[in-house]
Specification:
By secondary structure, the chain is α+β, with helices and mostly antiparallel strands. The chain has 2 domains: 108 residues, Nuclear Transport Factor 2, Chain: A (Roll), CATH 3.10.450; 111 residues, Nuclear Transport Factor 2, Chain: A (Roll). The protein has 5 helices and 10 strands; from the N terminus they run ααβαββββαβαββββ. The strands form 2 sheets. The chain has a 5-stranded mixed sheet. Strands 6-10-9-8-7 form a 5-stranded mixed sheet, covered by helices on one side. α1 packs antiparallel against α2 and α1 packs across α3. The protein is globular. This is Nuclear transport factor 2 family protein. InterPro entries: Cyclase_SnoaL-like (IPR009959), NTF2-like_dom_sf (IPR032710), SnoaL-like (IPR037401).
Length: 257
């Protein structure tokens, strides 16, 4: 495990431990926060840690997956902030040249029941398999543009090995057939899912995380889609979708992305 991954995990664990000294040590003074519920800067993060430490119910943090791409670490985590209920999250941390955590993006949603195939939002393959990460990034980037953005929908089947596709979306069954059935059901219910812009595609080995903005069921949302690639095909998928609040409602001016 790299030092940056260790430090990213140590930072989010301060929510559970209340260790203010560790938070102070890991954060850059000019830390940039993109979580819309918190003010920007290291002091605001430390204040949040302090507040959780004083809560009557202990916060729990469980990191399921951890990856690294250049100066960024991205984590797949289950949080329960002061007993408020389990949330599934993706966190992205950017490290500066001094090894301090300088910027953070995330997406969170309530942990749901297993999907029609009995899969949860967090189970499945955890460890990476040595693979050319740039090939993974290219495949996922092309899939996001061609299929999720709808630019070349005729290429849909070329991204999958037949019907072999493991799905962790809480509302969709396994397989390309499950995805197709879900999209038809959404369309019939008038619940349109639209990807408008993709800002980052981070990759390590056979995993890639795509960060996008769009609409779902008429709501302005952020999509964080994690894909695992196998033998040149999309093999597994996890997603967290979160509403984006207005600029007036946000606690900082840094934007969601």
């Amino acid at each position: 495990m790299s030092q940056n991954i260790q430090n990213a995990k140590a930072l989010i664990n301060t929510f559970a431990t209340g260790d203010l000294d560790t938070a102070r040590h890991l954060l850059a003074p000019d830390y940039i926060q993109h979580n819309q519920a918190y003010a920007t800067g290291a002091a605001a993060f430390i204040s949040a840690v302090e507040g959780l430490a004083q809560a009557s119910v202990k916060t729990t943090v469980q990191t399921i997956r951890a990856f690294e791409d250049g100066d960024k670490v991205f984590l797949h985590t289950i949080y329960n902030f002061a007993g408020s209920g389990e949330q599934v999250a993706f966190d992205i941390f950017r490290f500066n040249a001094e090894g301090k955590i300088a910027e953070h993006w995330d997406n969170l949603d309530a942990l749901a029941e297993p999907n029609p195939s009995g899969r949860t939002q967090i189970d499945g393959v955890v460890e990476t398999t040595a693979t050319d990460k740039e090939a993974t990034r290219t495949l996922v980037t092309n899939f996001v543009q061609d299929v999720l953005h709808g630019k070349n929908l005729d290429k849909l089947t070329s991204y999958f090995d037949g019907d072999n596709y493991i799905q962790h979306n809480a509302g969709i069954a396994d397989g390309l057939s499950g995805l197709g059935a879900a999209l038809v059901a959404l369309a019939e219910a008038g619940l349109e899912m639209v990807y408008k812009e993709t800002y980052q595609v981070l990759a390590e080995d056979d995993f890639a995380l795509a960060i996008s903005e769009g609409e779902f069921a008429g709501r302005h949302v952020a999509f964080y889609d994690l894909f695992r690639v196998e033998n040149g095909y999309i093999a597994e998928h996890w997603v967290v979708i979160q509403d984006i609040v207005t600029e007036a409602e946000a606690a900082n001016d840094n934007g969601k992305f």
